[in-house]
Design goal:
By secondary structure, this protein is mainly α. Helices cover about 60% and strands about 0% of the residues. The longest helix has 16 residues. Keywords: Signal.
Length: about 80
């Protein structure tokens, strides 16, 4: 379920994500999703909002999955 959630939230939030496979998205963002936004799992909308809010705290690998449009977002 969590693998699907991470892939779904990335695909819903960024066209950049289409350049990456589901496995790459999961590998890059699963730890961040669980660490920062676990309380919202399995709600894709809230997890996506949460990860956007905490963008600066995401790993560089996960930030790449979201693409450059979020690079200066502050919470």
């Amino acid at each position: 379920m969590k693998k699907f959630l991470v892939a779904a939230l990335l695909l819903a939030s960024s066209t950049q994500a289409f350049a990456f496979s589901r496995a790459e998205q999961t590998r890059a963002c699963r730890p961040d999703a669980e660490r920062l936004c676990g309380r919202f799992i399995p709600d894709v909308t809230n997890v996506t909002h949460c990860m956007n809010h905490f963008y600066s705290q995401l790993s560089p690998e996960c930030q790449r999955m979201f693409g450059p449009r979020h690079h200066h977002r502050q919470g």
